[in-house]
Amino acid sequence: MSDQSHARSDHDLAPGEEEQHSVGTRILGYVVGLVLALLLTATSFFIAGTDLVWQPSIPVALIVLAIAQMGVHLVFFLHITTGPDNTNNVLALAFGLLVVFLVVGGTVWIMAHLNANMPPMDQIMRMQ
Amino acid sequence: MLGKLDWSAIPFDQPIPLVAGAVVLVAILGVLTWVVVKGHLPYLWSEWITSVDHKRIGVMYILLASVMLLRGGSDAIMMRIQQAVAYQSQGYLPPEHYNQIFSAHGTIMIFFVAMPFVIGLMNLIVPLQLGVRDVAFPTLNSVGFWLTATGALLVNLSLVIGEFARTGWLAFPPLSELSYSPGVGVDYYAWSLQISGVGTLVAGINLVTTVLKLRTRGMNYLRMPMFCWTTLASNLLIVAAFPILTATLAMLLLDRYLGFHFFTNEAGGNVMMFMNLIWAWGHPEVYILVLPAFGIFSEVVSTFSGKALFGYRSMVLATMAICVISFMVWLHHFFTMGAGPDVNAIFGIASMIIAVPTGVKIYNWLFTMYGGRIRFATPMLWAVGFMVTFIIGGLTGVLLAVPPADFMLHNSMFLVAHFHNVIIGGVLFGAFAGFEYWFPKAFGFRLDERWGKLAFWFTFLGFFITFIPLYIAGMLGMTRRMQHYDVAAWRPWMIVAAIGMAVLTIGVICQIMQLVVSIRNREALRDRTGDPWDGRSLEWATSSPPPVFNFAFNPDVRGEDAYWDMKIHAQQQSLERDRPEYQDIEMPRNSPTGFVCAFFATVMGFALIWHIWWMVILGGLGAFATFVVFAWRDHDEYVIPAEEVAAIDRINLEERRSLVSMAGTV
């Protein structure tokens, strides 16, 4: 078993299998990630309560910040890169995103249209 | 002290479950006594129960599936008899019992027959086909199997202690909510699926990792046998879809246990959300089951036609296309729930599109057979039978994907006939084909061909005699799950279906006879070469049964059909390496973790069903402690010395050489 996994590990890394970096660089990476994550979190809380920006733009801003937060987590904590050693991880992420998009998006769409074939209740009420 | 559990839980007034329970209990006790008296217990414990060998676990999965097939089949026989006699009468099954039977039949057949059967075959064969020594996480594999067995045990326990769900196999609310199903039936259903669902998810992660990370030298993605590709697709779907099932059932359980309102009628609950979520899992589930079967047929058709698989790359593409599109069609299970034409049309079209890659596969199999030298051994019979049956099932499926037609046919016997047509004709035929095809690999002797062919013909004919009448009854307006009916026109079809069920039962008996006869004649049927079918992929490159380490050397793969290539090369240039340098092999140690975990999971599941809270805590702590003990283990591998590897491998090599030299002279 061991001989195969070693032979493979130089071109395809599993999550948790780290590339060899010095401890210093790795700690630096985590610190940068933590600071960025905290910054984004703080900004979200600030934006949510502020009246410095145009009110309808707040939800959009929060969505953008949330996506940025996910990106920070992926890059600094889960170590997703675009390098050739990361193909499996990137593909797994893409598949996961696709499924989440299909299921969540599909569900929202379906649930919004569920009453399409129902008799229009408000009109029936008015007729009575 | 014992929560809701008291003597009233045992149905003393209902003879059928009591007698069935007693028979099963006597059988289990008989087997246990025989095992203990004959002194097989240590062997069973050390070689099977605690085994982390993927082959042993695969065999146990298939054994579980076979036993559950008999249970689910008995339910089917009872339903067919009930509908044959219940014309203008109550029949012999009271409604509450009949409702439990059709719910248990569906639950068992999908979760505890089809799932363990395909997962068992994948476990058994995929590491061999990839040319590796085990799956990625051997002990986790054992945990997954035993948790699945826990789920099966809980479902069967409901036969004598308490009751099973009366809600159908997907437990739709509001019927499955506390207000309409106050008994323990739905709890049995939900907890057994939650526990076995963990097992399935674990198996899925394990097999995905195995295919992605453990392949022998030269085994590129585009050199993998088709079965490995379908395994990858199917397990990707498991990893993506099973969490949806777990979350949905968790919400239902919160409703039932803690007074939440996810799916209730009152307090803002939304029943439709349950249908939506359960089918977002349920439709990928269909492909989780059928994709491995497609892989099995690809292997079987190519081997028994003596040709490489036609259109290998288009097959890979079709498999992955199905993997993705299967997440875009789930609304076709509830076209009639109220969505408007735009939603229905999109999902209807998506459902028709998914038939395209499936059609590609059918043509690929046909073209593989075209011009081949076909041998109609039993596995090939199942494969050809599948093509005929599955095309009919697929066509009625495309018909049901047309929303206006679905408005006429939904929840009718036509639907029942359709999904049995694809699940029996696709998954079960595939499982049987794989069983016949790989049995010599797992046990070292072939199965009896005569009984195998009889089993095929009875099952094949019995299937059509049972389910064509159900299509017709559906067209005549008969809805599903009827305990009794008053329409004279349906009666003859129900009687024909019951006769078909009898023919199917003969098929099952032939299958059992085949096993008995083959075990008795095993010396005559012995396969010494490890390659009884003149196979093409790497599982045939090792002995049957394979040694615990599968391959003395990790095979080198130079193209598709790896083993076929090796055989051709061996014939051309006399023989490969004469004196191979054997090396020590490290293999994972056996571990009781899986069995002990499952024991505590059973205790916990049972306690949760009956609200015995102290026992829930006990079971949970026990399972967690088992995990901690396993996590702190000191050594998890043992070494097989090179001499032992050499001794085991030489026997097989000799047999194989005589085979190759014989083939050379012919």
Automatic annotation (TrEMBL), chain A:
GO terms for cellular component: cytochrome o ubiquinol oxidase complex; plasma membrane. Keywords: Cell membrane, Electron transport, Membrane, Oxidoreductase, Transmembrane, Transmembrane helix, Transport. The keyword Iron does not apply. GO terms for biological process: aerobic electron transport chain; electron transport coupled proton transport. It is found in: Cell membrane. GO terms for molecular function: cytochrome bo3 ubiquinol oxidase activity; proton transmembrane transporter activity. It is a multi-pass membrane protein. The chain crosses the membrane at residues 27-48, 60-78, 90-112. Residues 1-20 are annotated as: Disordered. Its main location: membrane. Belongs to the cytochrome c oxidase bacterial subunit 4 family. Heterooctamer of two A chains, two B chains, two C chains and two D chains. Cytochrome bo(3) ubiquinol terminal oxidase is the component of the aerobic respiratory chain of E.coli that predominates when cells are grown at high aeration. Has proton pump activity across the membrane in addition to electron transfer, pumping 2 protons/electron. This is Cytochrome bo(3) ubiquinol oxidase subunit 4.
